[in-house]
Amino acid sequence: MAEAEAIHVRPPEPIVITVCRAHNLRGSKGDAVNVMVKVEFNEKVLGETPKVDCSPDVPAEFNFSTTLNCTYEDPLALDEIAHKPVVLTVIEVMPKERRQKEEKTSTLGQCTLDLLPLVKGETNYRYTLVINPTPGSPLEAIPAENPRPELDVMLSVNEALLDEQQIKDGNLLTITVESLFSPPDSWQLTGQQFYYSAALPVPCNSEKEMLVVFPGGQLKLGADKELPNKQKKWAVPGSAVGNSIFIPDSVIASDPVEDEDGDFKDKGDRDHRHLSESEKMRITWNTERRCYLENAAVKGFQDSVAKTRYWPIEIFRFPQPAGGKGKKDEEGTISYHGVAFLNLAPLLYPGVKRIRGAFKVLPYTDHLLHEKSKRKAGIGEEALRLSLNQLNRSSASPAPKKAGKEKAEAEKKDAKKGASNTLKSDTGSEIDGQVPVNVEGQQYADSKSYIMIDICLTRPLVPKRPPEELARRVAELIPPRPAFPKRTDSADKAVEDYHCQIAGVASLLLEEFREMFGEDQGTGEPQTNEVMEGRRQKLMYHLNSSGKYFSFKEQLKHSVIKIVREKYLKTTNFDDRQQLQTFLSELYVYLVDQMHQSLNKVLQIEDQPPIPPPLTTNAQLKHFAREAEVNKNFDLATKYYQERIIREESNADNWFDFGTFCLYTNNVSKAEECFHKCISINQRHMDGLMLNGVVCTLAERNEAAETFFEAATNVDPKNILAWTMLGLFYDTISNDIGAEMAYLEANKLNIGQAASIARDEEQEKEKKEKEKAERAEKDGEATDTPQVEGSIVPPLSAGKSLTPSRPGSQLKEPARGTPVVGEAEAQEELPPREPTPIPAMSIYMQAVDWLLEVKAVPFTEQALAHELLTTPSGKTPAYHIATARVKLQKEEYEEAEQSLNDALQVEHQNPDGWALMGHVKYLNGDNHAARECYQRTLSFVTDATETHSIYLRLASIYLQDGEYQQAKQTFLMACKKSPSCVSWLGVGIACYRLGELGEAEDALMEANILNNSDPEVWGYLSLVCLRTARKVEAEQSYKHAVKLQLQDAALLNEIHAEQKKATFGNPEF
User: Fold this and answer.
1) Beta strands 124-130; 33-41: pairing state
2) Any idea which UniProt keywords this protein has (predicted)?
């Protein structure tokens, strides 16, 4: 009893269908006509309106209402309302003739009423429906320019069929089966006729599934072209005929092949699809079936897709019933049983509501069905029974029926036949462990058949977090901070007012001083301390006795109070006297400092020299830091990175670069701090968001990492790198569907970018060809002056005669509207398909390049693994070089050398490969081999990606080998491209060894300007000064070198030897 009370079923909700009026009607015997409207749903008559007279100028006012109950006890009631129309049949009533017992009726037209708005939560909805004429109706004779016959209808319910929670939890699945292209060649329009059906299961709750069939496929010739905006048909039209079987205002959308989700969308399949859709036969359905899914069905559907991904749709044909008594055995049997597996995994992508594509049709076998979708048996037998029943019902006439008994008997016969007949299909069965063979179905695979299907949901199964929420979550993880500490305008204004008051009081004091002691200033008496102290005492006595001292104090009082309130935020009394004294001391110090600043501005006699701007730019400091990083001088690199931050603390890029350096030195906590600072300054910093995600992934904070990666894709949805990084993250946490979604989006953007580049290059090429043709035309006109007027060659023909003929240009000329020979024939043929552009670099290699730059080694190795799996040719030279760069960062030199050997065997002229090989040899101490690699790299026509380190290391090898002239030239090459302290120091050392002391000093001075804290530069400057007999400069340079802790023992010994030889240069002597 308690259980019965707990289960509450909502009582039926009546749906009121009101037929208001009809416009622009005419009858078979003139404009005046007597009409009525019959209302049907699911082949049941709901009611008939009264008979009303009307004419084209006078509408028929029906104002008739009937009800359709929506019962909630039946779980499929809402599903029926969603996909079945209300059929409105307009019937003309003829006047009775003599000796006629009943009135004659004639059907004028029909229209269908869609109940879908009620399923979406509407309570009132108005329609103005076009009445479609039935065959032979007088409405067919209405001229096209005249107004079309229309019917005004209104839907209403007292309460919404679904409450807000049901609408939120439920979903509406719309399945559109369009056409099957490239069917088996044995199918013909002549001979025995067949029905073509498609069927698939749809969940109706968490446990059960219902079968959805599309039995109305029609075999059409390739020459029978379809209109661009194809209207969708009702899956169950009921008694509707003619154009009423189409859903009003519902057309099939056509998407670019690149945006499809199915099969046959690769470059190699485009020609097959073009041929199949333009010339070959096809099976056309163009039918839409809506399925209402309650909450349990939505969850069951989502779980099934997550487990199997593939959803089967079975395709078969069966013979049309013969008119005679023969061939009864063939009725109710199917043939050419095929199956297409719809990959519904994209529906589990965040925010995805629709998939559409061409899905490959395969021969049906139970083994294949179980392998792909984990289903044990197919649905062919049940689909055949439902298809026959539906076809028998839809073939009925919309006019009033009289053969009710005949129909009932036919239905009983069909039921018996469906129960008795066995399914004759060559699906096969497994015998002796052999995989069954479907001979007829194999023709689908041989013909490369595919079926176009569109599946749409009203709400995504996995909602996508909106950009606002992602931005809020990023702000919660890393609160945005201002570029500088907060200072309110009122506090600055208070200090500014204090400065103004100080300046005013100082001016008044000067006037008092001049009045009292102005005459004494011109006598020329010596200004001793006693005289000045006496004047001060007289001035103080005068100010106190005259009351001006207190006046000045009152003048300053208000500005001091504002500083206390606005800057120190002190507005209440102090409870502790010690705190009061501490605050007063602090306030006094601050006021005195501000007073001095104000007085320095007012009483300034000479302008102070401006602070000189820094000699190095932000970009130079970054270059110096990278140079120190390559030379493994991490302390110096840290100094440069920190100097950049000190100069521009509000620059997010400075924090990001320092963070990547910390990531390289394996200081992950410091790197995370830097990336947080980067995002706090700029919440939309793309690289900062992605590296925050990388750091969180390394720390196994996956939820925060997902937030950062998703935020990056929302900041720039067209960024290939952001989607690739999101896919790599999903791979890390084993989210296969999320990774698939991210990689698909990245590949789509990559192909689109390649297409854009190709178009730009083509336009640039056409522009140059056009300019060339114009120049040639002008040259021809200039040389061919004796022409008869009117015989000038047209520009286009001139261009044709002077420009070499190319297939590409000939194909493009008709598109520009240029008249050519045989234009009519060319217009009949479809233009050739443009070739699909091939991206210059895969999404994974783009990610690898960026990850190597930011030193994120774990993600780099993961991206390289994907590149290896997705590249048909296997390991490419770019892959080997990227692997070598990873090994270099990990200091695994043997593996790096092996990868570079593999790369150089394929591309022996790759400058990057030889440069990296030189670095490996140099770091291993093999200077001779490194020298040969560096020299070969610089001898190539194409420069390596990074040449600065090549110049520095090659020049240092020259120095070690005593080839000072070569070292000088190589160091100068480095200075020319990107000067630094190290490069100029190398020039100075080489010049010093060559005895070019003047050039050596100039180079060392340049190095000192770029970095005045390098002890080696000061040491060589000391040597130069010792050689040129400059004692003071030599001692100063030596002092700086010792102060900066010069560690080079050989250089120190050389300096000491020169000092003993010159007998100066060391203050200790």
Assistant:
1) unpaired
2) Coiled coil, Repeat, TPR repeat
- Separation between Cα atoms, residue 350 and residue 347, nearest integer Å: 8
Q: What is the pLDDT of residue 424?
A: 40
Half-sphere exposure of 1016 (CA within 13 A, CB side): 15
DSSP one-letter string for 435-446: PP--TTTHHHHH
Question: Distance (Å, rounded) from C-alpha 200 to C-alpha 107?
Answer: 36
485 vs 93, residue with greater confidence: 93
Residue 527 CA to its chain's centroid (Å) = 80
For residue 263, the 8-state DSSP code is B
CA distances in angstroms from 244 to 88, 240, 377, 399, listed in the order given:
10, 6, 37, 14
pLDDT grade for 404, boundaries at 50, 70 and 90: very low
* pLDDT tier for residue 708 given thresholds of 50, 70 and 90: very high
Nearest to 1005 by CA among 1014, 406, 274: 1014
Cα(1022)–Cα(999) distance, rounded to whole angstroms?
15
Tens of pLDDT, residue by residue over 1008-1023, are: 999 989 999 999 999 9
DSSP state string for 447-463: HT-EEEEEEEESS-SSP
Tokens at residue 27, please? 């009858």
Check pLDDT > 60 for residue 814: no
């072209």: which residue's tokens?
225
Q: What's the CA gap between 73 and 107, in Å, rounded?
A: 36
Burial class of residue 307, CB neighbours in 10 A (0-12, 13-18, 19+): exposed
Over the stretch 172-220, which tens digit does the pLDDT of each residue have? 999 999 999 999 988 888 878 888 999 999 988 777 889 999 998 889 8
Quick one: how far is CA 641 from the chain centroid? 32
Which pLDDT score is estimated for 773?
Answer: 85
- Phi, psi of 614, deg, nearest 5: -65, 145
**Residue 33 has what pLDDT?**
87
pLDDT at residue number 477: 83
DSSP letters spanning 209-238: EEEEEEEEEEEE-TTSPPPSSPEEEESS-T
- Quick one: pLDDT at residue 411? 41
The region that residue 327 occupies, defined by phi over 0 for left and psi between -120 and 50 for alpha, beta otherwise, is left
Q: Are 289 and 83 in contact (CB under 8 A)?
A: yes
CA distance 812 to 816: 7
Residue type, 727: G
Angular region, 1065: left φ>0, alpha ψ -120 to 50, beta rest: left
338, 628, 775, 973 from 977: Cα distances, Å: 67, 17, 39, 6
Are 494 and 559 in contact by the 8 Å Cβ rule? The answer is: yes
CA–CA distance, 619 with 377 (Å, rounded to integer) = 68
Q: What is the pLDDT of residue 476?
A: 84
* pLDDT average, residue stretch 605-626: 78
Which residue matches tokens 């670095």?
A: 919
Residue with tokens 């190539």: 940
Query: DSSP string covering 304-342, please?
Result: HHHHH-EEEEEEEEEEPPPSSSS-TTTTT--EEEEEEEE
Structure tokens, 781? 């006109």
Tell me how far apart the alpha carbons of residues 843 and 466 are, in angstroms, rounded to a whole number: 25
Contact 983, 1010 (CB under 8 A): no
* pLDDT more than 70, % of the chain: 86
Confidence of residue 678 (pLDDT cuts 50, 70, 90): very high
Lowest mean pLDDT across 91-95, 422-426, 536-540, 603-607: 422-426
CA dist list (Å): 514 to 521, 527, 540, 798: 9, 16, 14, 94
Which residue's entry shows tokens 């005068």? 542
Q: Comparing C-alpha atoms, which of 891, 862, 867 is closest to residue 880?
A: 867
